[in-house]
Amino acid sequence: MAEDGGLLVLGLGNLLCGDDGAGVAAVELLRERFQPPADASVLDGGTLGLSLLPYVEDARDAILVDAIRADAPPGSPVRLEGRDVPLAAMERLSVHQVGVADLLGGAHLVGRLPQRLLLLGVVPETIELRFGCSASVEAALPDLVERIVAEAEAWGYRFVPKAGHGETGPRSDCARAVHAGV
């Protein structure tokens, strides 16, 4: 848990529904490549919905990472902040959108939404039942991780690159997230 209600980076999505797992895969890649600061937590929230409420309530700042529907090619970056995030959770997230909308609604109801709220993600190509991300989303994951790190740094949270994080084999980032037990 982040110290003093710091930053929460929360990966959302379902790894068994194609590109819907992009947020979870990005968080796993972030963990693999960067050491978070002491006042930050990096969590795989999967499709847990309201059970994530204590983490959101305790965060001063939050970056949600997910697949986000938009009128753009698959793999395109999407960035939403503030009041646009709960609206997107109701309309533009993938198959788990109800859980995220409930999560943010619950935090709002008890007056515990993070002071700064950001949703970063990529446009999915497919969210059908299948293992692993599409090539376009897979290719966008390293950039998504860099965007998470840059946004966190702009808020005063410095992620430190890990030495020798390199490639861990032929598996894709989405597939690696599943095998890592994220």
How would you explain this protein's 3D organization?
It is a single chain. With 182 residues, this protein is of the alpha/beta class. The protein has a single domain (3-179), classed as HybD-like (Rossmann fold), CATH 3.40.50. It has helices at residues 22-33, 53-58, 84-91, 97-109, 135-154, 173-179; strands at 7-12, 34-35, 40-46, 61-67, 77-81, 116-122, 160-161. Helix 1 (22-33) packs across helix 6 (173-179). The longest helix has 20 residues, at 135-154. It is globular, with a radius of gyration of 15 Å. The relative contact order is 0.25. The model is unreliable at 167-171 (pLDDT under 50).
In summary, what is this structure?
This protein is an alpha/beta fold.
Task: Explain the layout of strands and helices.
Layout: E1 7-12, H1 22-33, E2 34-35, E3 40-46, H2 53-58, E4 61-67, E5 77-81, H3 84-91, H4 97-109, E6 116-122, H5 135-154, E7 160-161, H6 173-179
Parallel strand pairs: 1-3, 1-4, 4-6
Antiparallel strand pairs: 2-7, 5-6
Helix pairs in contact: 1-5, 1-6, 3-4
CATH level 1 name: Alpha Beta
SS field, number of helical segments: 6
CATH topology: Rossmann fold
Taking the alpha carbons of the first and last residues, their distance comes to 17 Å
- Give a short account of the largest sheet: 5 strands, mixed
Strands of the biggest beta sheet: in what spatial order? Answer: 3-1-4-6-5
Keywords:
alpha/beta; two-stranded antiparallel ribbon; globular; 182 residues; 6 helices; Rossmann fold; single chain; 7 strands
